[in-house]
Amino acid sequence: MVFSRDFNKDPFIVIWELTRACQLKCLHCRAEAQYKRDPRELTFEQGKDLIDQIYEMNNPMLVFTGGDPLMRPDVFDIAEYAVKKGVRVSMTPSATPNVTKEAIEKAKAVGLSRWAFSLDGHNAEIHDHFRGTAGSFDLTMERIKYLHELEIPIQINTVISRYNVNYLEEMAQLIEELDCVLWSVFFLVPTGRGQESDMISPVEHEKVFLWLHDLSKRVKFDIKTTAGQHYRRVFIQQKLKEKKGQTEEIRYLDALTEQGLTGSIDGLGRAPKGVNDGNGFVFISHVGDVYPSGLLPVKAGNVKEQPLAEIYRESPIFKDLRNPDKYKGKCGVCEFRNVCGGSRSRAYAMTGDYLESEPFCVYIPKALRKKEA
After folding, report:
1. DSSP code string of 283-305
2. Is it the case that residue 51 has pLDDT exceeding 70?
3. Distance (Å, rounded) from C-alpha 89 to C-alpha 7?
4. For residue 322, what are the contacts with CB-CB under 8 A and spacing of at least 6?
5. What is the pLDDT of the chain when averaged over all its residues?
């Protein structure tokens, strides 16, 4: 499915924010979620039309997010419509009292393919602080037991921040003990409630990437990164050290690029070809606004006014983001720009320009090293 997909035409993954309502108040929340639903949310009928449009775009993966999707009483009706259409759907609800065993049973009955929970610490002290709600850790662990009982695959999402960066080994051990199929590791972008002071440093990013690569060789669960595109560069570098040696790095990358295969070795498995904000990725807000991602708050259109495919394919914002030759600074000359590209969201958050260099990457491209020499 992925290798036949042209990201200029069709996304690999669509994130739909069903609602911004949520009972939690997480420190990093890009949505700045509120306790009550917004009356401007896409209706059930508008949602069905949106799903039809998504399906026609070469049927990408669809993720329901929020806020908390379970704050919408029609969430399972929406999910059932998508699944019957043939769309692969997963959901990322908040671990709140809304996540009852009955709710999880409904999710399984309608055919949701995966359930994702957030865990941002290996204990209640760290996790509950980050999630802004006492008891969140214990509730999450209890609900994970429900998922196991119902044999629903579990994905764990973790935001790396200064609050948990020193406890990643403990986190990995917990992920393994919970028998998860995927650990999705998010690297904080200072947008919404997220602050630059919550972030880890550029050097710490690099250390975490190297650690994740090493971890990937000794655990049974898959690992992927979000807003950590430079993990792909680290993964390739480590593979080249193991298999090819540094002297053949550029020649090897050039050969892969000619074959269109650079993304196939990015270590993400599910998302080759360098998925990035607006490039294989699209985010639809609760009111139908379309963004390159939920972390890049630059509006490109609204599905109430314009077809999703037209926005994704024709918006100047999306077109710029899909053209690595427009990247500025060191990202623009980096030999890894086609498979990595840096976080466009973080570039925007830190500089106000989504085409600027990834500000939390320590790598110096070979073209710049040659100039210095």
Report:
1. EE-TTSEEESBTTB----EETTT
2. yes
3. 20
4. 7, 8, 278, 279
5. 88
Whether the model clears a pTM of 0.85, i.e. scores above it, the answer is yes
| Residue 347, SS3 per DSSP | helix
All domains in the chain, ordered by first residue: 13-319 (3.20.20.70)
With beta carbons less than 8 A apart as the criterion, state whether 42 and 66 touch.
no
Question: How many angstroms separate the CA atoms of 274 and 123, rounded?
Answer: 33
Structure-block tokens of residue 349: 């958050």
Q: Structure tokens of 122? A: 């290996």
What's the rounded Cα separation, in Å, for the pair 52 and 231? Answer: 34
Please check whether residue 275 is in contact with residue 2, taking contact to mean a CB–CB distance below 8 angstroms.
no
Residues 6+ apart with CB under 8 A from 21: 33, 34, 35, 36, 37, 38, 66, 67, 68, 71, 72
Q: How do residues 3-32 score in pLDDT, each as one tens digit? A: 468 999 999 999 999 999 888 777 666 656
Query: What distance in Å separates the CA atoms of residue 337 and residue 204, rounded to the nearest whole number?
Result: 21
